[in-house]
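Recap from last week: sequence in, structure out.
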Amino acid sequence: MEPAERERQYKPERVRGAERSVQVQVGSLGGFDLRPSRFFVWTGEAREGRERVLPFGTAPRNLKIPRRPRELDAGPVHVRTLGNPAMTVALAAVQVTRRLRKAVR
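Predicted structure tokens:
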């Protein structure tokens, strides 16, 4: 097998037009999905229909530069990211800070 063919086999396709995110699932307890514009929380293994959403007050902004989704398993914890996780957390923190400041005024 050629190196280019092997690389295509192991690397997931790049995603464009989706919001950056950091998703953590902790076994059957539940999980969360942090995005710069909102925060999802759910209990149990199934997310669909059981999630609660906390919007941060801004419209979602999709990635213009294609990014590969990354996944990591550490025991019962499954982490999935799209885009740089540090940047995702930072952007969400800015939105939360702005919303809190606005609420205090």
